[in-house]
Amino acid sequence: MESSWMGKAIGIFEFDNMVACLVAMDAAAKAADIAVQGVERNRLKAGACVKIRGTVSDVRAAMEAALAAGAKYGTLTGKHVIPAPSEDTETAMQATILK
């Protein structure tokens, strides 16, 4: 995992289809100074989970834009912002990115 992401806020959102995820991810990247850490396709469904990193304010702004844009193309199945991830959360994030 890129060390510059360590300790940065995490934004996670999931839509029921890949088109909605890609549209949402694009909107997030254009709305704020964030980095897309990973996109994880659901193994049993058509959707995906997108993980973004940045400052708390940038992640919140990016999430707002992403959710609005993605909602036009699919159903949101989950979302959350982790403002200050723990070391264990960082380890788990690395495991899901590199799997």
TrEMBL record:
Primary location class: other
Alphabetical UniProt keywords: Bacterial microcompartment
Family matches, as Gene3D superfamilies: 3.30.70.1710
Localization in the cell: Bacterial microcompartment
InterPro entries: BMC_dom, BMC_shell, CcmK-like_sf, CcmK/CsoS1_BMC
Keyword Repeat: no
Domain BMC as annotated: residue spans: 9-94
Gene Ontology CC, one term: bacterial microcompartment
One Pfam family per UniProt: BMC
PANTHER family: BACTERIAL MICROCOMPARTMENT SHELL PROTEIN PDUJ, PROPANEDIOL UTILIZATION PROTEIN PDUA
Family classification: Belongs to the bacterial microcompartments protein family.
The protein, known as: BMC domain-containing protein
Organism classification: Bacteria, Bacillati, Bacillota, Clostridia, Lachnospirales
